[in-house]
Amino acid sequence: MEAYGLLLRLGESGCVYPVASGEFRSLGEVAAAFDFASDVPIQWEIGDSAGPSPEPADDSAVRALGWQPRYPFDRSVADMIADAAPSE
Question: Contact, 21 vs 54, CB < 8 A?
């Protein structure tokens, strides 16, 4: 959210600002992080792909405005799961 606030203040209209860590993670690594952070089993259906893996997003434009990731990937995954959990 900090990146989006920064972009609202300092970003140029019409420019593209990918907000990313710049680190590539495979779908398997993402699934493993969700499995580790979840209290319940997750049923994954990941197909095969013969295509090349995409390059990490170029986040240099948003970093040039002073933004950088503050939270590790695993924490972001855990926060997403906690946010999606039904409230008791």
Answer: no
Element (H, E) at 7: helix 2-10
85 C-beta neighbours (distance < 10 Å), count: 11
Enclosing domain of residue 31: 2-40+55-84
The pTM (predicted TM-score) of the whole model is: 0.69
Cα–Cα distance for residue pair 19/58, rounded to 1 Å: 8
Question: Is residue 62 within 8 Å of residue 18, measured between CB atoms?
Answer: yes
Q: Is residue 18 assigned to a domain? A: yes
**27 touches 46 (CB < 8 A):** yes
The C-alpha angle 41, 85, 71, rounded to 5 degrees, equals 90
pLDDT digits (tens, 9 = 90+) for 26-59: 888 999 999 999 988 899 887 777 778 777 888 9
In a domain, 62, yes or no: yes
